[in-house]
């Protein structure tokens, strides 16, 4: 019997959730009710007892598809474009002169596709692609073309300022807007640390974005975490943990091996 209407004899079976249906109408109803897309999950777990030759063939074809996709990405024109490589080299070089260790990812990575950071040679300043994360409200906002001489306080005004913020955004970030400004803390994750040793640098809201990024490692673009001192729990700020003294970000970045630096240069 059809598992949607329970009246007619089933004719179809959904590759995704294995539900039986009798007609196109019931197929659409079951997709809507179960939020099912009808596409078979090629990575779904299959126990050893239920594993058959069909599952083996499916896995083999899945790996072939992955290989073809990776090969197509490697052959993409932008991967070997001299113009793209030259622009990235100039961008990293300008950042290095500002004491910022800017690193780029290979083509195909999400952050590489998202990044819209540019350097204006006439004005001699960066216009950054910036991501703001408000973990207490589970909210993220992406900003494009943020000038490097803009202070962090001015960047945050449209989001958490009780007067200047957008009403819709203000309502979503209400926990921030009602909190005193002294309770707001801006953090940035320190790169090149072990996964079980995540630490953050505290930034100065009264200083410019460029001043805050100096001496730090940036992968593609900065991601700033806006937290409240009274609520943050598992975000350890470097220098505020009694078991670990504060360190200069320059010394951390300089401790990278030449092999790692070479890999990053090659990948870009």
UniProtKB/TrEMBL annotation:
Record flagged with keyword Phosphoprotein: yes
Family: Belongs to the BCD1 family.
Organism from which the protein derives: Phoenicopterus ruber ruber
Region feature Disordered, mapped onto this chain: 241-268
Protein name: Box C/D snoRNA protein 1
SUPFAM superfamilies membership: HIT/MYND zinc finger-like
The UniProt record lists the keyword Phosphoprotein: yes
Subunit and partners: Interacts with FBL, SNU13, NOP58, NUFIP1, RUVBL1, RUVBL2 and TAF9. Interacts (via HIT-type zinc finger) with the RUVBL1/RUVBL2 complex in the presence of ADP.
């Amino acid at each position: 019997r059809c598992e949607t209407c329970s009246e007619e004899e089933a004719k179809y079976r959904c590759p995704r959730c294995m539900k039986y249906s009798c007609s196109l109408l019931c197929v659409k109803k079951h997709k809507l009710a179960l939020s099912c897309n009808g596409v078979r999950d090629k990575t779904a777990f299959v126990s050893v007892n239920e594993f058959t030759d069909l599952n083996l063939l499916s896995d083999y074809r899945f790996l072939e598809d992955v290989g073809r996709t990776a090969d197509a990405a490697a052959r993409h024109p932008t991967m070997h474009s001299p113009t793209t490589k030259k622009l990235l080299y100039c961008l990293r070089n300008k950042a290095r002169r500002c004491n910022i260790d800017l690193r780029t990812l290979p083509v195909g990575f999400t952050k590489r596709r998202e990044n819209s950071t540019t350097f204006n040679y006439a004005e001699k300043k960066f216009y950054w692609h910036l991501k703001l994360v408000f973990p207490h409200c589970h909210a993220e906002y992406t900003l494009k073309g943020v000038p490097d001489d803009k202070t962090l306080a001015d960047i945050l005004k449209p989001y958490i300022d009780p007067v200047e913020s957008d009403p819709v955004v203000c309502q979503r970030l209400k926990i921030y807007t009602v909190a005193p400004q002294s309770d707001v803390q801006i953090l940035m994750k320190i790169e090149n640390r072990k996964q079980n040793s995540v630490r953050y640098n505290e930034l100065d809201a009264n200083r410019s974005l460029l001043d805050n990024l100096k001496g730090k490692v940036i992968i593609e673009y900065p991601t700033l975490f806006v937290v409240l001192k009274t609520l943050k729990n598992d975000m350890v700020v470097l220098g505020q943990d009694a078991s670990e003294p504060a360190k200069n970000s320059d010394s951390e970045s300089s401790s990278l091996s030449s092999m790692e630096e070479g890999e990053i240069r090659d990948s870009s």
